[in-house]
C-alpha cells in the first residue's frame, strides 16, 4: 500500500485542532481512522468521498505523491472556516438523508401535487411527483405542465431529496431545465397507516420576470406505487380553484389559512 495517502491525510489533519475533532465532524470511528493514518487499510469509497468533501480536495489529489500534495495544499487558498463549514453542511445533510430512509419508506410512490400557482395567480397547478428510495437517500422528481390541460404549455422538472426531521417531511428540489429555482416544501406526515393526502407549505419564486419569492399551501394526493406516468401527467395542468379536477379535500387544504395575529401563512393538517 502506498504511504502517500496516510501522509496526505496526516497533513490535512494537521490543519485542525485534533484528529478527534476531525473524526467527530466526519462521523468516523477514531480507532478505524487511525488505521487509515497509519497506512494499515484504505477508507471505503463512501468515506473517501466524505473525507474529500470535508477537506475540500479531490480524490485524485489525495492520492498524489506526498511531495506534490504538499505543494498543492500550500498553493490552495486556505479558506479556513468557510470551506470547513461548507463541507460540514454536506456531511450533515448526508447523515440526515440516510437516517430518514427507514421512516420514509412508507411514502414511496406517485402523487398528484396541487398548489396555488405562483406564476398564474388565481389558478391551481396540478403536477406529478414521485418519491422513491435509492441506496443513498429518498429522491424526489416532479413534472409540471404550465398550461391548461389539453392545450399544451411549457414543462418544469424538479429533482431533489426528501428527509424527515421531528415529525415533518422536508423536500428540497431544483428546477433542472432552467436551473434557476429551488423549491422547499414542508409537509405534515400521514397520521394513518394508509397514506391518502399530505399537506404543507411550499416556497419558491414565480416564473415571471419579477421572479418574486412566494409561498403557498400545497397538497399531495397519493396515487400508489405503480402508475402510468404518461397517462397521469396528461391529467396535470392549470385549473380553476373550483374545477372538479381539484378534489374537495385538496380544495380545503390549499384554500388559504393565515394567522391574523402573526401574519404567518399556515398549513392545515391533512
From TrEMBL:
Q: Which GO terms describe its molecular function?
A: DNA binding
Please name the CDD domains in this protein's record.
HTH_XRE
Q: Which SUPFAM superfamilies match?
A: lambda repressor-like DNA-binding domains (SSF47413)
| Residue ranges crossing the lipid bilayer per the database entry | none
Give one Pfam family: HTH_31
Domain of life assignment? Bacteria
HTH cro/C1-type domain spans which residues?
18-62
Q: Which InterPro entries match?
A: Cro/C1-type_HTH (IPR001387), Lambda_DNA-bd_dom_sf (IPR010982)
Q: What is this protein called?
A: Transcriptional regulator with XRE-family HTH domain
Give the source species.
Primorskyibacter sedentarius
Amino acid at each position: 500500500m502506498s504511504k502517500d495517502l496516510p501522509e496526505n491525510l496526516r497533513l490535512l489533519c494537521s490543519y485542525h485542532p485534533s484528529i478527534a475533532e476531525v473524526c467527530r465532524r466526519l462521523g468516523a470511528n477514531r480507532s478505524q481512522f487511525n488505521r487509515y493514518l497509519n497506512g494499515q487499510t484504505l477508507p471505503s469509497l463512501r468515506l473517501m468521498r466524505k473525507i474529500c468533501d470535508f477537506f475540500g480536495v479531490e480524490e485524485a489529489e489525495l492520492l498524489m505523491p506526498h511531495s506534490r500534495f504538499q505543494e498543492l495544499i500550500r498553493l490552495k487558498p486556505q479558506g479556513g472556516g468557510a470551506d470547513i463549514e461548507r463541507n460540514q453542511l454536506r456531511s450533515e445533510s448526508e447523515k440526515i438523508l440516510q437516517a430518514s430512509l427507514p421512516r420514509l419508506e412508507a411514502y414511496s410512490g406517485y402523487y398528484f401535487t396541487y398548489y396555488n400557482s405562483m406564476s398564474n395567480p388565481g389558478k391551481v397547478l396540478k403536477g406529478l411527483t414521485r418519491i422513491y428510495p435509492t441506496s443513498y437517500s429518498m429522491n424526489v422528481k416532479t413534472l409540471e405542465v404550465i398550461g391548461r390541460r389539453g392545450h399544451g404549455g411549457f414543462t418544469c422538472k424538479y429533482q431533489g431529496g426528501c428527509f424527515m426531521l421531528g415529525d415533518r417531511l422536508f423536500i428540497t428540489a431544483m428546477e433542472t431545465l432552467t436551473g434557476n429555482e429551488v423549491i422547499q416544501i414542508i409537509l405534515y406526515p400521514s397520521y394513518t397507516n394508509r397514506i391518502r393526502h399530505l399537506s404543507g407549505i411550499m416556497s419558491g419564486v414565480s416564473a415571471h420576470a419579477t421572479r418574486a419569492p412566494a409561498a403557498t399551501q400545497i397538497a399531495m394526493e397519493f396515487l400508489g406505487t405503480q402508475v402510468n406516468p404518461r397517462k397521469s401527467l396528461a391529467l396535470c395542468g392549470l385549473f380553476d380553484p373550483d374545477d372538479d379536477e381539484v378534489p374537495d379535500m385538496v380544495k380545503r387544504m390549499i384554500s388559504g389559512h393565515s394567522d391574523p395575529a402573526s401574519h404567518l401563512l399556515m398549513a392545515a393538517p391533512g
